[in-house]
């Protein structure tokens, strides 16, 4: 008799579809009135005394509103008392628009960008931050007022009459009066052939400026303009003895009735440009437009004014006041919407200011100010032990830009990356990713939520850049949103969800599905940052039909069960998701007895018993204990080259580490062709992982072979 080999092949088919191990059936939803920005930021707290999720409501809790905690203290409220800036009766609102936790988890900082400072008939905004110890509530307040230093450099040459000289003084007085009780300070210098300081910033602060100005005598000689500009820079702006500060916005107002008698042979205009000092020039009467416009700052046509006589100074007064207001509110180091973003790096709080520097933005560290196009979005990292700072400007030159800096002894710019499409909002969201959790940043993810492909109706793109050992950002891949929904509005690095040892990523598309919103989960990848195909799509309307803009903010969470979770913000609600444990399952086949009779006349006698055992090993690190996971197991016995086959099907609940099932095979199950080997194919899958308490890993073993000699 010839030998017959029974060959058993195991194939594992795993259904991941659009649901993996974020549990969408057992969520916690925190809601408030939807008129507000509610919980614009969410922060998970992990400390000895405080575990939970801090949710801010930037427009909640006016003086007539109340905040209540529930009896079980599953949530409690911390009310920030109503305060106003020293120079304004307007209460500060929007606390919690940015929030950050220090490295030691000992305190948090909650900021508002809406501290109003009125002046000149206008108002500007600044940040105010509270440092809070969680067991005591709000403690200290940090509020930094913007400052602008203005120097009047006015012509005292012999070409003007005494009456015209006095109109110069009146003009200066009007501007100073219009900026009383604001962070603007003034100094004045008269120039002719010689240069004379009339009053400095100390005099202005002490109330002596007006008296000194009124007593100033008319010099009546030549117009040595560039010499005077050099004097103002060296002896006023850069001289601490005058009360000047090195870290404020500086403005020069030059009033002249004639062309310069000297030339810029010492490069004084370039020095002003290098120091970013704004220069506003008023040319009166005979002053040639091209001559004094060369002194003005860019854009020169907006910062140089020509009038026919000194009576015209009144006409440019409002224009110059607006220029000073602009300098104070849009180019000061702490300017419009400071406090819009914030992040801790060790013991340093870094605050982004999106409206600074003509809306090119700014990055601020308390006690240390820097100029730069920074602040709309901030992400931090580390490479080779050196701190890395990534900052975004989504509106820079219409395409957006990301600036990459590091800090050793000082801030050093390493690289700039520009977006590829106008209006894409490239850099609106940044996420640094340490994919293997070794303490070194591996990738930077950049969101461009308005990137659009109208032909295929897709909107939003996430760009993935690898951070090389030489600290260079290198383009790796990009992922485009599957629909019109502002994909990439938020990007969040999550703990390892699926147990493969790599961090995962969540991406929000808050306008998807008619603004109900969606969140996409991507598994980490060592070479590419993330797997290009999402593992799970969480639709806001499937969680609650009332959710809108679901996914506009995403934060990581960690429950007491040791499993990571996700907190997703929508308009008026925060949804807390838990993840499910993930298991690898190894299938093994065996047979008994080893020898059996294939020639028995009774075809119903069992020839051999096939046993399938399933070993279950958790990939995640949960503390939930035994769990069950239903797996559909289908046996298909097929004789190679024959049409006859048998099929066995059963659903198993795998509670223990090992679960086995057995089936008997008789002669009726196959054709006794001893020249043809038999093959058994086994498939199993998890048909509905969304409703189960555990999930089968996509990396689970998929094939095995068993040979049986007959």
From TrEMBL:
SUPFAM superfamilies, alphabetized: Integrin alpha N-terminal domain, vWA-like
Any one GO MF annotation of this record: metal ion binding
Signal peptide range: 1-19
Keyword presence, Repeat: yes
GO CC, any one term: external side of plasma membrane
Topology with respect to the bilayer: Single-pass type I membrane protein
Domain called VWFA: residue spans: 149-324
Localization in the cell: Membrane
Main location: membrane
Gene3D superfamilies cross-referenced by the UniProt entry: Integrin alpha, N-terminal (2.130.10.130), Integrin domains. Chain A, domain 2 (2.60.40.1460), von Willebrand factor, type A domain (3.40.50.410)
Annotated FG-GAP repeat ranges: 412-474, 475-529
InterPro entries: FG-GAP, Int_alpha_beta-p, Integrin_alpha, Integrin_alpha_N, VWF_A, vWFA_dom_sf
Keywords per UniProt: Calcium, Cell adhesion, Glycoprotein, Integrin, Metal-binding, Receptor, Repeat, Signal
Gene Ontology biological process: cell adhesion mediated by integrin; cell-cell adhesion; cell-matrix adhesion; integrin-mediated signaling pathway
PANTHER family the record matches: INTEGRIN ALPHA (PTHR23220), INTEGRIN ALPHA-L (PTHR23220:SF84)
Record family assignment: Belongs to the integrin alpha chain family.
Name of protein: VWFA domain-containing protein
Source organism: Oreochromis aureus
């Amino acid at each position: 008799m010839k030998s017959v080999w029974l060959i058993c092949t195991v194939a594992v088919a795993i259904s991941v579809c659009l649901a993996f191990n974020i549990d969408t059936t057992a969520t916690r939803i925190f809601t408030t009135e939807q008129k507000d920005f509610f919980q614009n930021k969410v922060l998970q707290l992990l400390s000895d005394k405080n575990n939970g999720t801090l949710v801010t409501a930037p427009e909640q809790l006016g003086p007539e509103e109340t905040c209540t905690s529930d009896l079980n203290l599953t949530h409690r409220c911390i009310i920030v008392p109503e305060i106003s800036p020293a120079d304004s009766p307007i209460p500060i609102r929007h606390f919690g628009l940015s929030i950050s936790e220090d490295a030691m988890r000992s305190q948090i900082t909650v900021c508002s960008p809406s501290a109003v400072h009125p002046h000149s008939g206008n108002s500007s905004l600044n940040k105010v931050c509270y440092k809070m110890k969680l067991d005591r509530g709000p403690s200290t307040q940090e509020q930094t007022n913007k400052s602008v230093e203005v120097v009047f450099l006015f012509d005292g040459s012999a070409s003007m009459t005494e009456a015209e000289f006095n109109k110069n003084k009146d003009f200066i007085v009007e501007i100073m009066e219009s900026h009383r009780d604001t962070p603007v300070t003034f100094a004045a210098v008269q120039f002719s052939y010689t240069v004379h300081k009339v009053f400095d910033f100390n005099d202005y602060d002490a109330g002596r400026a007006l008296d000194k100005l009124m007593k100033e005598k008319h010099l009546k000689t030549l117009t040595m303009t560039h010499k005077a500009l050099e004097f103002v820079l060296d002896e006023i702006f850069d001289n601490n003895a005058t009360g000047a500060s090195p870290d404020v916005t500086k403005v020069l107002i030059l009033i002249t009735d004639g062309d310069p008698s000297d030339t810029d042979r010492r490069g004084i205009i370039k020095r002003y440009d290098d120091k970013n000092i704004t220069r506003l020039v008023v040319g009166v009467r005979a002053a040639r437009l091209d001559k004094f416009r060369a002194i003005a700052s860019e854009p020169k046509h907006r910062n140089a004014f020509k009038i026919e006589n000194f009576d015209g100074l009144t006409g440019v007064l409002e224009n110059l006041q607006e220029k000073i207001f602009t300098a104070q509110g849009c180019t000061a180091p702490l300017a419009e919407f400071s406090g819009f973003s914030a992040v801790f790096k060790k013991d340093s709080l870094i605050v982004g200011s999106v409206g600074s520097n003509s809306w090119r933005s700014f990055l601020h560290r308390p006690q240390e100010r820097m100029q730069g196009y920074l602040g709309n979005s901030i992400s931090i990292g580390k490479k080779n032990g050196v701190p890395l700072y990534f900052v975004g400007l989504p509106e820079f030159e219409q395409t957006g830009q990301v600036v990459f800096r590091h800090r050793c002894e000082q801030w050093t710019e390493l690289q700039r990356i520009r977006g590829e499409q106008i209006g894409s909002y490239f850099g609106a969201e940044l996420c640094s990713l340490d994919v293997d959790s070794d303490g070194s940043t591996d990738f930077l993810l950049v969101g461009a939520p308005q990137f659009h492909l109208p032909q295929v109706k897709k909107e939003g793109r996430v760009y993935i850049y690898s951070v090389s050992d030489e600290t260079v950002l290198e383009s790796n891949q990009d992922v485009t949103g599957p629909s019109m929904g502002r994909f990439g509005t938020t990007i969040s690095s999550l703990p390892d969800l699926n147990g493969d040892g790599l961090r995962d990523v969540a991406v929000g598309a808050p306008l998807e599905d008619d603004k109900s919103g969606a969140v996409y989960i991507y598994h980490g990848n060592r070479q590419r940052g993330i797997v290009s195909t999402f593992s799970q799509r969480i639709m806001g309307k499937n969680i609650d039909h009332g959710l809108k803009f679901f996914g506009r903010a995403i934060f990581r969470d960690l429950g007491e069960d040791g499993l990571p979770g996700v907190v997703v913000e929508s308009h008026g609600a925060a949804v807390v998701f838990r993840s499910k444990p993930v298991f690898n399952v190894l299938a093994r086949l065996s047979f008994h007895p080893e020898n059996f009779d294939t020639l028995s006349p009774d075809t119903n006698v069992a020839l051999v018993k096939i046993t399938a055992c399933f070993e279950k090993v958790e990939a995640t690190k949960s503390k939930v204990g035994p769990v069950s996971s239903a797996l559909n197991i289908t046996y298909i016995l097929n004789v190679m080259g024959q049409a006859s086959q048998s099929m066995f099907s059963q659903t198993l609940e795998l509670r223990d580490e090992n679960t086995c099932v057995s089936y008997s095979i008789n002669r009726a199950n196959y054709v006794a062709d001893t020249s043809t080997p038999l093959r058994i194919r086994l498939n199993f899958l998890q048909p509905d992982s969304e409703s189960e308490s555990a999930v089968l890993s996509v990396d689970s073993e998929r094939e095995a072979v068993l040979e049986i000699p007959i």
